[in-house]
Amino acid sequence: MGSELIYRGHESQPVSDPYSPKPDKPWASVVRPIRYMLREQRLVFVLVGIAIATLVFTVFPTSPAPRVPHHHFIDPIPDSIAYFPVETQNKFSHPHRLGLGSSNPAGKIPLGLKRKGLRIVVTGGAGFVGSHLVDRLIARGDSVIVVDNFFTGRKENVMHHFGNPNFELIRHDVVEPLLLEVDQIYHLACPASPTNVVGTLNMLGLAKRVGARFLLTSTSEVYGDPLQHPQKETYWGNVNPIGVRSCYDEGKRTAETLTMDYHRGAGVEVRIARIFNTYGPRMCIDDGRVVSNFVAQALRKEPLTVYGDGKQTRSFQYVSDLVEGLMRLMEGEHVGPFNLGNPGEFTMLELAEVVQETIDPNAKIEFRPNTEDDPHKRKPDISRAKEQLGWEPKVSLRKGLPLMVSDFRQRIFGDHKEGSNTNNGESST
């Protein structure tokens, strides 16, 4: 069957006329958009928008902001808000202390704006001085991390903060590195051994990494058996580097050296406090310090042991005065070192007599041979702390001692289990 498709190439194909569109009219480019807008009602929306904008700018006219000199710039906060004075704001003008991320020394803080709490680590915070410092920081609204290995500290000293979301307790020895994000470091952990230097190095390293301010609690022992009386911060001391007391003395002197080296070489913000003899509640009952020894002996009806002739002198400050000085030093702008102590000077015999008056007038005094390298005189010159920190002790020995006696009496007689634990004091002077 043949194909029905036949090629007819010889047949001619009709040719259609080529298409030629009509030329555009000259006004078509204008008429076409107008027709489109009228047909889609775009013009109505444009006119309505213009009318609304005109009404808004007519009813609510804008007024130019007053020009304020650059050096007097303040944040545009409504005038109806009350403000703190500039002096109060300047006290917390440093960014990492205010906790607001920036400072404005010339500005004012609204009265209703609460101070943002800082994140603070206190090494040795479960000890005698450390626990009282923690109490003050928590009461101020800060978040506090206590780092303690409980070598001399006690959980009982900080148990009342358990459950507080602003309180953390870490069992850790500062001779091992520690990574934390904090604003301030109070370094109180210091056993009388070379490890206090290693711990200081670790905490200075932490301060350098996170940009925290570091406060070292040094001691009046850096003056040794002083040849200058009273002792000023400019005095370099008289320390026997190989004596029986040298481990603690030289350890603190080295800690001060390291602290200043980190300050000068690495730009770490540091503060140095030289603490003189301190007493008060939560002090270790059997730590060998003269105040706790006399109080515990008098309560137990034992003789008060006086070493040597009893004419050597000491000054005694109540723990609340010390805590106030430490906080002022941390918040201040001066590196130090600063003597923090009570310039009231007592001989050991006078102290024994005050304890007798407070606890037991019939208590006996027993003399024993003096210890090696025992300082003959110890009295702080606190002129620098008065001038630069506005600090001086408020609690006298006769006012503070009964508070300590009450605490010791409860721990010795009221709770035998608690009183049997002798490692309950912070190792501070």
Automatic annotation (TrEMBL):
EC number in record: 4.1.1.35
Transmembrane segments: 42-60
Name by which UniProt lists this protein: UDP-glucuronate decarboxylase
Highest taxon of source: Eukaryota
Pfam families documented for this protein: GDP_Man_Dehyd
Chain's role: Catalyzes the NAD-dependent decarboxylation of UDP-glucuronic acid to UDP-xylose. Necessary for the biosynthesis of the core tetrasaccharide in glycosaminoglycan biosynthesis.
Involved pathway(s): Nucleotide-sugar biosynthesis; UDP-alpha-D-xylose biosynthesis; UDP-alpha-D-xylose from UDP-alpha-D-glucuronate: step 1/1
Compositionally biased intervals (Basic and acidic residues): 363-389
SUPFAM superfamilies documented for this protein: NAD(P)-binding Rossmann-fold domains (SSF51735)
Annotated spans, Disordered: 1-24, 362-389
Entry keyword set: Decarboxylase, Lyase, Membrane, NAD, Transmembrane, Transmembrane helix
